[in-house]
Amino acid sequence: MRHDPVFTVEEAVRLRGRIPGAHSKNLFVRDKKERHWLVSCLSDRQLDLKWLAGELGTGRLTFCSRRRLAGYLGIRPGSVSPFAILNDVTGIVRVALDADLLEREPLNFHPLDNSRTTTVTRAGLLRFLEAEAHSPLILRFAG
After folding, report:
1. CA–CA separation, 5 vs 115, rounded Å?
2. Which phi and psi (to 5°) does residue 36 adopt?
3. What is the pTM of this model?
């Protein structure tokens, strides 16, 4: 579905009535050792980066810069989604998914462009990530 570009979950809320299914919040983060993660969770999650770092088995996490977003995932801010892993040809970025997100059907993400939303099944998303050699870590988020 085409729509105005959205950069935050709050901006995307107005689309929900027109797009059925689970909506996501997507982050691109890194630690001081240059390990990078693309994290997707339910859009209404309140994320605690300290908790997330513990679950990922790393130290302090920070959000990646615009430069890193373009360099590693080939996208602009606002367009992070699991589909961006397609551009991680070096296999550096790890993927972490919210277990509760994967319990919903269908799933909605930006297809590398924040002026569009595409819908995929859970099986389709997992098949895509496996085909791209990015088996996800499934996390049980608190709350």
Report:
1. 4
2. -115, 140
3. 0.88
Which of 53-57, 62-66, 111-115, 137-141 is the least confident region? 111-115
Q: Which residue has the higher pLDDT, 110 or 135?
A: 135
Gap between the Cα atoms of 136 and 126, Å rounded = 8
Gap between the Cα atoms of 21 and 100, Å rounded: 13
3-state secondary structure (DSSP) of residue 84: helix
Q: Distances from the Cα of 142 to the Cαs of 47, 48, 64, 110, 137, in angstroms?
A: 9, 10, 23, 25, 16
Reduce the DSSP state of residue 124 to 3 states and report it: helix
Mapped onto helix, strand or coil, the DSSP state of residue 19 is coil
Query: Is the link from the previous residue into 106 a cis peptide, with omega within 30 of 0?
Result: yes
Structure tokens given for 116:
């569009």
User: pLDDT tens-digit profile of 18-72?
Assistant: 777 888 999 999 999 999 999 999 988 988 999 999 999 999 999 999 999 999 9
